């Protein structure tokens, strides 16, 4: 079984597209918590209230980092999606962490981000523009078969 960690942008259905497309493959998926409110509030919900916004966010980031580090460490392949609407600084951090661990990294973004992400792209083993391309990479890795 190939373990794939799906990191990055949370505002579109790209994860669902990959998971559905890979339904017949021997793949398991993991990801960060994609409910924005839960992700933001996990630190104070678990560790207690925090009136200062910096420490509020800091608590959440650290609790989320436990989950993220485990997911990336356990993964065979890490897919990092950079969306169009927001700058995903955390996604860039995840890509760097995966690269530092020597994980097989697939970066997913549109052509408009190619220049801004050139260093991230250079660390990746593949740069895809569409979720279906990620599915085809996974299929090829597992079966050696090409699309079509």
Automatic annotation (TrEMBL):
NCBIfam families: YtoQ_fam. InterPro entries: YtoQ_family_protein (IPR019884). This is YtoQ family protein. The lineage of its organism: Bacteria, Pseudomonadati, Pseudomonadota, Alphaproteobacteria, Rhodobacterales. It holds the Pfam family Nuc_deoxyri_tr3. It comes from the Bacteria.
